[in-house]
Amino acid sequence: MEKYVIRGGKKLSGEVVISGAKNAVVAILPATILSDEPCIVENLPNISDVTIILQILSEMGAKVRMINKTTVEIDPRTLQNVPVPYEKAKLMRASSYFLGTLLGRFHEAHVSMPGGCNLGDRPIDQHLKCFAALGATYNIDGGMVNLTADTLIGNQIFFDKNSVGATINGIMAATKADGLTIIENAAKEPHVVDLANFLNSMGADIIGAGTDVIKIRGVKSLHGTTYSVIPDQIEAGTFMTVAAATRSNILIRNVIPKHLEPITRKLVKIGVQVEQYDDAVRVIGGEDYTGTTVKTQPHPGFPTDMQPQMAAVLTCSKGASMVTESIFDNRFRYVDELRRMGANISVEGRVAVIEGVERLKGAPVKATDLRAGAALIVAALSAEGVTEIYDIFHVERGYENMEEKLRALGADIRKVDEPDPVAAEHTARKAI
Ligand code: EPZ
Q1: What pLDDT, on the 0 to 100 scale, is given for residue 93?
Q2: Residue 316 known to be catalytic
């Protein structure tokens, strides 16, 4: 059982290079299934979600070859339409992308209901609505989502809910449908645009990604490509909050500053200095911050995936802050953990009220999901004393070499592997 042990209170300095975007690459890798030729994907982050997707592709019969640490070649020609089982699908939400991509290529898909971070109810009704509009029939049987279609025919789809996953699945299935598909109330997140750019680089005909309305004219075939994944907006934003919370001066490289604007705006508002360059931002923490209001919104609003890390910064900002989560039902599970460190936070429904305290104190805490884990790291780095963060496998799903990157900035962080006390007791009992 691995944990992070962090001694907080150190000022950090130096540079950090941001890796490829998790939420883009987890769509792009399954999308290679639509290609008729091998594809090369560059700027691959070394995170466990990528490992799992590559395993799924490989188990389905695709030829997966790492060219170097950040570049993979995927030849999908030998891939068979094998069901994506529960053991893999339960590990991440992005397993749902095999629905759109297998439907697009084989007109049939069988994928176990997707798992991922527990953020409250995460239905897939909009994904299914979209597949049905393109001509597929579906059923859910024994936890398996089954889709079949004789032919896929372009259609006009209006999403009742602005959904990243449904938009990506819709684009993937429509790419090889007959005729024109128009998706309205589409998600505009940078990773939606990246997926569309990737497919266009293989010969797809997708326009409007990044706006509310995306038009996809189906094509018969897609050729191979070499494509570099965009930098991770949320990893960059997380390091911005690390700099803010630890009152440090950090240069964050390999970013698209435009993607960071909603985060930059909030940090500047509370008193953090942010300098923007072409592909980097420098974040200079101040001594005192003021509380503020944060409301998560679809892009270009403040990202829900930065809500816990921003809240961690606000725990030590002067006065009261109000954080409203408008995307997910239950994204405040980290609050109990921050309270263990001395934060003064109360939660009512989708609103958290934070009364700033002078300083957090280290404590044993547990990452309840990926960004919750990131928020605890932010808090621990600024806290007095030692924090132990358990369940860090959540963090490793989405952050490449987090502890190494932080150590290079001067943080006192170690990854420690200690025996699971429950398993150890079990073994001891068996020995008796
Ligand atoms: C994506 O999840 C991201 N995951 C999440 O990142 C991110 O928090 C989320 O988008 C919002 O930006 C990936 O890209 C792999 P949604 P997704 O469909 O696609 C509701 C992280 O930390 N909804 O945009 O699952 C849903 O319940 C993670 O990196 C429906 O009602 O999110 C939610 O309230 C966690 N019906 C809202 O829409 C549907 O069919 C937005 O969800 C689909 C979604």
Answers
A1: 83
A2: no
Instruction: Encode pLDDT of 15-53 as tens digits.
Output: 999 999 999 999 999 999 999 999 999 999 999 999 999
Tell me, using a 6 A CB cutoff, whether residue 328 lines ligand 1.
Answer: yes
HEC-encoded secondary structure of the chain: CEEEEEECCCCCEEEEECCECHHHHHHHHHHHHHCCCCEEEECCCCCHHHHHHHHHHHHCCCEEEEEECCEEEEEHHHCCCCCECHHHHCCCHHHHHHHHHHHHHHCEEEEECCCCCCCCCCCCHHHHHHHHHCCCEEEEECCEEEEECCCCECCEEECCCCCHHHHHHHHHHHHCCECEEEEECCCCCHHHHHHHHHHHHCCCEEECECECCEEEECCCCCCCCEEECCECHHHHHHHHHHHHHCCCEEEEECCCHHHHHHHHHHHHHHCCEEEECCCEEEEECCCCCECCEEEECCCCCECHHHHHHHHHHHCCCECEEEEECCCCCCCCCCHHHHHHCCCEEEEECCEEEEECCCCCECCEEECCCHHHHHHHHHHHHHCECEEEEECCHHHHCCCCCHHHHHHHCCCEEEEEECCCHHHHHHHHHHHC
The predicted structure's pLDDT at residue 172: 98
**Closest ligand 1 atom, CA of 327?**
34
Q: What is the pLDDT of residue 1?
A: 85
| pLDDT value at residue 422 | 57
Q: Is the CB of 306 under 6 A from ligand 1?
A: no
Among 122, 185, 195, name the best residue to mutate to test ligand 1's pocket (greatest count of ligand atoms within 8 A of Cβ). Answer: 122
